[in-house]
Design brief:
With about 200 residues, this protein is mainly alpha-helical. The protein contains ten helices and no strands. The chain starts with 10 loop residues before the first helix and ends in a 6-residue tail after the last helix.
């Protein structure tokens, strides 16, 4: 069965096809899922190279479990987010022994292609401030905030990824947002943030 990027096959179906030897299904799942996992990992880790390693490892784990996948128990994307989140958390824990300054040093800023020098500088400063503030949050708060506000997952989806209740997710997000607001409050004018931002 030929598959293309516009295939309407579900992730479950594609994973089952891959488990039965369909390499085209694997290619399509990779195209669909890797960018989202890479984005999550980059936001959690703040490092593109590490994020690529995490995304690759998460996809490898997906291929390994494909023959045993039970459709309907969980969404493939949710399972993959959970694996990537856990891999990121493990790396962040190991990183603590190195120290935040070395882990989030210069050269790890996300690329920004928006026009205008002033805008690019302001956007880069905002991104750096947010990254630094996120790095100071406890792992679970950071994970919940990133999944909700940067990846756009729903609270029930986050609860499934993090394997906790929806109320716990809401609490983590609320505490994380308060902590971020507190850490960034003294820099609102400097970062060009208004009350709406």
């Amino acid at each position: 069965m030929p598959l293309d990027a516009n295939s309407e096959q579900t992730d479950d179906t594609l994973l089952a096809l891959f488990a039965n030897g369909d390499r085209g299904a694997a290619r399509l799942l990779t195209v669909r899922l890797t960018p989202r996992v890479l984005s999550l990992a980059q936001r959690m880790l703040g490092d593109r190279a590490e994020a690529e390693d995490v995304a690759q490892e998460a996809m490898l784990r997906l291929w390994k479990i494909a023959p045993d996948w039970r459709p309907g128990e969980a969404q493939v994307s949710t399972w993959l987010y959970r694996v990537a989140s856990n891999l990121c958390t493990d790396r962040l824990r190991r990183r603590r022994s190195v120290g935040l300054d070395e882990a989030f040093g210069e050269g790890n800023e996300p690329e920004d292609f928006s026009p205008g020098v002033v805008r690019r500088m302001q956007d880069a400063e905002r991104a750096a401030a947010l990254k630094a503030a996120l790095a100071q949050l406890p792992d679970r708060q950071r994970q919940a905030v990133v999944l909700r506000h940067l990846e756009g997952l729903s609270n029930p989806g986050i609860a499934e990824v993090m394997e906790i209740g929806v109320e716990a997710v809401e609490s983590l997000i609320a505490r994380g947002k308060r902590a971020l607001a507190s850490r960034l409050s003294g820099r609102r004018a400097e970062l060009g943030l208004s009350d709406d931002t």
